[in-house]
Amino acid sequence: QVQLVESGGGLVRPGGSLRLSCVMSGEMYGxxxxxxxxxxxxKERELVAFxxxxxxxxxxxxxxxxxxxxRDNTNLVxxxxxxxxxxxxxxxxxxxxxxxxxxxxxxxxxxxxxGQGTQVSVFS
Length: 124
Hints:
Layout: E1 3-7, E2 10-12, E3 18-25, E4 29-39, E5 46-52, E6 57-59, E7 67-71, E8 76-81, E9 90-101, E10 108-114, E11 118-122
Parallel strand pairs: 2-11
Antiparallel strand pairs: 1-3, 3-8, 4-5, 4-9, 5-6, 7-8, 9-10, 9-11
């Protein structure tokens, strides 16, 4: 069973920085991408950034220039967040999409797994 555990959230003043980490465990066949999403109270969950297995990255317009997503070869994905703003306050979730073999055949299907989330609060 694949599990994701986030850490690194906390309270920070505007202009400060945080580094979020996500540790992934379990067997995954053919990871497509790893990503970070966030959800503020009363709002829909939105994409912050993702990184593909080939290293290609993409960022939401609201965080471009302030966030950097990265991963290593031991199933760890990080999100460095700088110059934080009050509107960055949200629960941040790590997720992964990977391929899984369909029982009884050689075909695969995409599987998506989410972590439990870590709270980021930005205010004075």
